[in-house]
User: Fold these one by one.
Assistant:
Number 1:
Amino acid sequence: MPELASCRGANISYHFRSLKGYPYHGYTLISFRLPRLKKFLIKVPELSCDPVLNCYHVIMSKVSTMSKEIPCPAGLSYRPFQLEGIRYLLDHPAALLADEMGLGKTVQVIGMVNADQQCKSILIVCPPHLKYNWLREWQRWTTRNLTVAMVDPKEDIPTADVIILSEAILARPQIKKALRLRNWDAIVVDESHHFKNPTTQRTLHLYGGRGVKALDAPRRIALSGTPILNRPIEIQTTLAWLDRPEWYDRWKFARAYCDPKRTQFGWDLSGHNMKTLPNLQRRLKGHLMLRRLKRDVLPELPKKQRQIIELDTPRSFGIGFDIWKKLLKGTGASTAKDLLEDEQAFRQALKLLEGSKDVPFADISRVRRELADAKLDAVRNFIKDAVDGSDHKIIVWFHHRTMGEHLAFEFGQQAVLYYGGLSSTKKDVLVQRFNEDPKCRLFLGSLKTAGTGLTLTASNHVIFAEMFWVPGDIQQAEDRPHRIGQTKNVLIQYLVAANTLDAHMGRVVVRKLDIVDTALDKDEELDLLLS
């Protein structure tokens, strides 16, 4: 492994103590100025291994920005690997941040903006279902007085400093024209692998091509947990946008890495060249890509990592706060915290509400079903990104069986569907297949049926497709993978509909569960008074 021998100003000395199998292992000391070191590592294959390049990136981030303090909101803190990512973004005006899902790519981008006072006009392009998540994270992590707004598909682009735009409307005439009338300081493309096809309208109007000018800015950042989904050619469009001189020639890229073949329909670029792919990885890591996996930063992660993901839904719903207030009134509780502290009281309150003449419980059930139906497309897209983004298995909890059935139909043989109407034998077969079959990626489980008792340690990623209001039930479902035999941290994501009681209850429940996990013996007070 390479070790840092000295670091004075811009001079770096590496001591290669043990590079087994490499002809250069006899070098005891290699000293370069930083720019020359990078060029040397890229040109010498024997030294362009992951440990050396990773060591280079760490040193680069520390040397060039070690004196720069990264602003952070009071009460929050960046994890060490996130600080490294922020420094990397500060050092690289064009960067591909390819951390695995759950490591906080959004937070690292906001941290970069916090530290770079020159970033005053920022465009964020993301999938429709992630718009509210970007808005909430920005409001939570920003330290600057920048205005932020989401673009309404039916209206013009607002005059805010930070614009959050759905990738689905990039090609609309009024949108593409307005985007080019502004001078952007930074453009962020979330889930950049969605722009793999150079001929689609949204790719053309973002990355450029065929006479269409690309959206440009001094800082260009692409985010993707899986930059190369299946074929190397799929990353070329993003690379060409980030660094046009280096990566623009698509045919040159294909010849180097995609093993092109001529067919009766033309050239097939969907292949890959196993001999040259390591070189592509070296070029990316040495040039513009930073990628960390969970296993790389496991000591820095909590055993359970909870996230609220607010989804955009096509309509508003009547599961309103007036119902919640009546629920509180019926039990004598004044806050959400008071009610959730006593799970038995909460269940009793639901029963009281069911018999209430003011709020027919059947209407609430109907609205919740409608909400589940409206969330379905966004939930499906989110889960698809999660499946494509890693090779890990995922547990998905649902309440309405129709939700589970739709997801099972969408993912086919990649999923097992576990619900109450199955025999015990069939249920055992499904659990065994999920835990042992590498082709089975999803466990779709009814929380009422599968939320307790099962051991699902083959997964360390849990998604709640629907929000449940009883913390005890949620905690039981969270613990299906978090049992004896689990050696990884568990990522838990709650998919809620933005601006509804669904989202509010998600935040309330998750805050309670976080406090239970971190301060079991402390009397924590939650400021959860409802307005």
Number 2:
Amino acid sequence: MRALTRAEWVVVVCACCALPALADSPRENEIRTFLAEMEYAHARHNIAAFGNRCVEESVFILASDDAAGDATVVGKQESLRMLERFWTNRRLVSRDIRLLTCAVQGDVAYVTLESSDHYGDGDEASKRSFAVLVCQGGAWRLAVGMPLFFRLAPHVKQVLPGTPAAEAGIQPGDVVQSLDGQDVYLAGELTAAMEPGSSQAPRELTVLRNGQELRCSIPTGAAGIAFEDRLLPDGGADFLGPEQSHPIQDHLQQELAHLKDLVSAPAPVVTSPFLRIMPLPDRPAEIFTERTIASAYRQIMEHSARFVDTESMRLVDPGIIVQGPVALAAARTEAVVKSNGQLISSPTSLHVFARLDGQWRLAAVLPARVLMAPGDKARQPSQPAVDEPSNRFSGIGVHVGLAKHGLLVEGVLPGGPAEQAGFRQGDVIVAADGKRLAGMEVEQAVKHILGPEGTEVRLLVGRGQVPPRTVTLTRQSIAFNGVSHRMLPRQLGLLEIRGFNQDTVEATRQAIEELTKSGAKGLVLDLTRGGRGPLNNMIGVAELFLAPGQVLFRIVRDGENARDVSCREPQMTTLPAVIMIGEETGPASELLAGAMKCTGRATLVGQRTAGQAAVMTPVKDHPTQPQDYRKTGDFLIPGSGAVFGKGVSPDVPVDKTSRAELLKRAVLLLTELLNT
């Protein structure tokens, strides 16, 4: 079996068969009907029907067989001419299409396909592809087609401590391979399959972790586990993070500059044809071409200017997946809210780039809500109920996920209205103020629960086999992030960090400031519960405690020169510190603890950490299996060596005990240090 040529590939994304069994939703039924029309047009070689009923104003991106060559970008008319030549020249006998994934939101659907062609001369060819469908005027049409060099895989986003999932050994970052032996591709489907009542027997999750396949048995409905979709490189593609330079990063910055100044700043360099798909509330999705792109940018900025200070907008954490002359890129946009001065962050659209004549050009801009950029989320099967991307919201204080009959309560935030009303993990919120939540996306459903602080919301809540009960809660402002703090006796402050995101550095800064104002003479830093996240966020926290120039660790990548990572920002506090660590300390927290120990800045107490911190690189394992990773480098702590497999050892070892008992030991140790 051979691979398709560039000229033949375009017809693969134009040819689909009926979908395999999917959930019976009206939108998916419409897509099945549309795909049947496409298959009929192919079978009859009816180019008129194909062009009139199946293809929208379109962009098809063809990758060169030579990784150093250019891509080819064609529009609707050229793609139809190529398709007609293909029917004539290749004598297509049959086409077998295997649907890998299908994600629908509103008027936009993303599908990934594996196609096998059988020709009149007995030859065969196969190709995997990615396509975007758009619904306009009640009819679905094909809008974008491109090679499939990325894939969607459910990741474990969060595991609540003390829950069955935690006891079964599930860890954040695990890649879910199968449920009860069946392959899974979307986090939303996985969350729905794990909801209460879906099965009486325990469910077996197969996950990949550091190249190893693990099987874990957990009860249904009370697992304490949250999933999210991640977009990963596949088929030999490379992922480039913020620290790796690439011309596409300049293109992303140029687009933002143009958005902020539509008159003076140059517009992005685009291909011809070019498409930008914009989903609109209460209206069909709108498609912009290279001729109307200026109108799209005006709409974006007019909308943004109502809510945020557009001059404050900036890109952070750009990620790029590249395969030869085609690339997919996205970042996060930060901006200051006009009404309250708060800094918020949200994912950008997905940007598709093609290299033409040696120059990267923007070929398509796709909504970010269906898929997600590397490291970002688009579907939100489990999330705090928030009304905007920030760490404070006005709601009831629960983590929620998608359930068949509404929203599944996957965690209850301490001190919130839900906890006070007796909510438990596993409860299902069926309705809010009389509005049934079944069938809604999580983001849409939580909007019925959120509202101004002090207002009431009436919820219908189910639990197991007990009839649903009606509960009225008063919404309150709830802070939610990975940082918490409080004063302890003896003028000591407790600071806990459970994760590192874009808000962790500022939240830690504010916590230190408040503890200092409250009279803290020393700090207990609790890193025993989790601690994952981007490296730059962890470095930002370390810089609050350490002086500029101090070396945190050394990065040693395979085949590359070692690189020291040092503090650059001014030190915030010199208060004596004791750090609590243990077996559940996450990889980012391991590096923070190790850096604080090697510099003599803090004393570590507890148990040796698990040794998870390492430089990991995505690697192709098998085309039908979830993305795996391989270790390609180490983080070395000065005077201690590599963290991976060895962990960070405490200065004061303590046998495994409860967190409360470990805190008592840390307080006693810090008190002794202050008195010496």
Number 3:
Amino acid sequence: MPSRSGQADGAAAEAQPSATIATLALRAPDGRDAVPAFDGGWRREDGGRDAFLSYVQVDHPVNWSEQLEQLHEESSRSHFIDVWTRAAMLSRIGRLPARPVILDLGCSTGYLLEDLRRAQPRSSGVWPAT
């Protein structure tokens, strides 16, 4: 049905996207005047879509050091909370096929992947050097 502007309702809605509760509650990301429309993803100016809005500036410094990396690797292998967390995750995976293929991207220290390999010795995957 045509709207007052003479366009079909869908075309009028596309020409003037309505504000949603989400876009009213969010602030505009840096470099943008407003929160972009959401349509199966956050609309970019080039017409593409992003799965998330980023509020981190491109030149944002990463507050991580070699000392923090060493502390993280040393403590997470044997710290009881990390050991329990990995054991809980492995118990939730459930039954896998006889020869599963395992892929883990971004596994931090690799300890979960090592524990998974021990739990599934007949699995194949890309394993960290041991």
Number 4:
Amino acid sequence: MSIIANPARGFTLIELLVVMVIAAVMLSIAVANVAPDSRALLRAEAERLATGFRQAQDEALLTGVTLGWQGDPAGYRFVRRARGGRWHPLEEGVAEGGGRRLPAPVQILAVEVGGVNVEPGGLVVLPPTASQPPVRVVLEAQGVRAGVEIAGTAKVVFMNGW
């Protein structure tokens, strides 16, 4: 009986290195696609806020009811003036009436009405008329800023060489 030597089984060092490099490249691509892009997130939140202001302006004009907006660094909400002058969160109608918490790292940096700073949590009144002082809300995410300007219509302006 003859004995045949079995060749060594397993992978060579080169094969293992090639597999590790391929796995590392695939992992880096997956992480890049899954990690949130702060600029894209900032753009989406600025557009959402501008849309909310547009809807609030339209609703105030159509219903003849005074609406308001309150913001702090972490989020904002739209409110409606009830009889007796009290402000209540909107339950339906205007987008995010009950309140919107901004996703990290987006935050509200500043609010101005007619060039005057509004303190965090302060009320911005949206009257049921076509004329109102210009409102500017500045959002920031990791050093990049976007301004939502409301003067007639709401538009988004990107800053810092966007």
